[in-house]
Amino acid sequence: MDQSIQVTRPSMPEFTEYIEEIKDLWDSRWLTNNGKKHRQLENKLAEYLGAPFVTLFANGHSALECAIEVFDLAGEVITTPFTFASTTHAIVRNGLEPVFCDINPDDYTIDTEKIEKLISDKTSAIIPVHVYGNICNVYEIERIAGKYNLKVIYDSAHAFGVTVNGVGVANFGDISMFSFHATKVFNTIEGGALTYRNENLAKKINALKNFGITGQDSVEYIGYNAKMNEFQAAMGICNLRHVQEQIQKRKAVVERYRERLNGIRGITIPTEPQKGITSNYAYFPVVFDGYKYSRDEVVYRLRQQNIYARKYFYPLTSSFQCYKGRFDDKTTPTAKYIAEKILVLPLYADLDLKDVDRICDIILK
Ligand SMILES: *Cc1c(COP(=O)(O)O)cnc(C)c1O
After folding, report:
1. pLDDT at residue 250, as a whole number
2. Per-block mean pLDDT, blocks of 10 residues, the chain (365 long)
3. 177 in helix, strand or coil?
């Protein structure tokens, strides 16, 4: 058996539970295109996320591209480079220009004090990221967006189920994107969703992910194909039954990391969520700054023991090879600094606390 510890490990239902869930697909032969499982999962997620409208997608990235496309945005979009490739790529692939704002040094979300200086007459939207499940300053972003008449699309890929003062995080901004990729807190193998409050968006969003088809004989949009299939939806239905329990198990892992790594000079562990904000315990990022080992040394020491932590997010998206010469990472010094020093430690529901201790021992030795 493989004894390695990866940074994450997908949650799965019992084999028999999944088999039971997909059984009727052999009778219905309805495998995709808004099937029964799909509709069921959409409803259950609307309830779980406290979101008025939910549209499922084949993956989070295609959902994000759709969210941008739906508003026919033009010009510039303010975003952060301390994120997964998806956020920046979605902006660029829609023919828009990302304008990179720096991040807060403590929660790594967009520094809202720096947003207004970046707004020009070409700015059409803000696409902030709830990094590691840390929630952006949503009220301040709402204020700025209102003042300058900008759309707000949240990359909520990390923020599944988080609530702010009792309100699901899906309720902020014009649209939020969630990812249900295998590695996320909740998964549908691959998958994603958009959530939104404006019912008028539903028609175009649902059409875009299905070739722009709006009726038997009508195609109103130049759409693409990003539909979630019934097997994915069935996995989601099963995983959603257990997600609360999975989050509780993640919490135990996070608490053990906190206990072991708290108060060590040169190691910064995540701050507790602000008052009124819940946590989904999605990630445990640690910053090594002035510690006896550098971040890269810690990566190497863990790897020697077959433990795979992840330099997440490094490099900044603005430093990707594919964007060579286009952006300057010196405009976001905090993001650049953090990206050099941060490491995401292994975290998943089934991670044994003994393994957490072993990981901490290697880091601390
Ligand atoms: C996972 C992720 C995405 C993309 O989601 P997929 O479902 O993998 O397409 C986008 N943004 C962030 C921050 C992510 O972590």
Report:
1. 98
2. 86 98 97 97 98 97 98 97 98 98 97 98 98 97 98 98 96 98 98 98 98 97 98 98 98 98 97 92 98 98 97 97 97 98 98 98 97
3. strand
CATH 3.40.640.10 in the chain, residues?
15-237
Q: Are 56 and 233 in contact (CB under 8 A)?
A: yes
Pocket probe for ligand 1: among 8, 103, 155, 187, the residue whose CB has the most ligand atoms within 8 Å is: 155
Tell me the fold of 15-237: Aspartate Aminotransferase; domain 2 (3.40.640)
Report pLDDT for 273: 87
How far is Cα 316 from Cα 333, in angstroms, rounded to an integer? 11
CATH architecture of 242-364: Alpha-Beta Complex (3.90)
**CATH 3.90.1150.10 domain span(s) along the chain:** 242-364
> What is the rounded (10 degree) CA torsion for 114, 119, 125, 131?
-10
Distance 22 CA to ligand 1 centre (A): 26
Q: Which residues line the pocket of ligand 1, CB cutoff 6 A?
A: 59-61, 83-84, 86-87, 129, 155, 157-158, 179, 181, 192
The pLDDT value given to residue 3: 83
pLDDT in tens, 91-138: 999 999 999 999 999 999 999 999 999 999 999 999 999 999 999 999
3-state DSSP call for residue 103? strand
Q: Cis omega (within 30 of 0) on the bond before 273?
A: no
Q: Give the pLDDT confidence score for residue 2 in this predicted structure.
A: 63
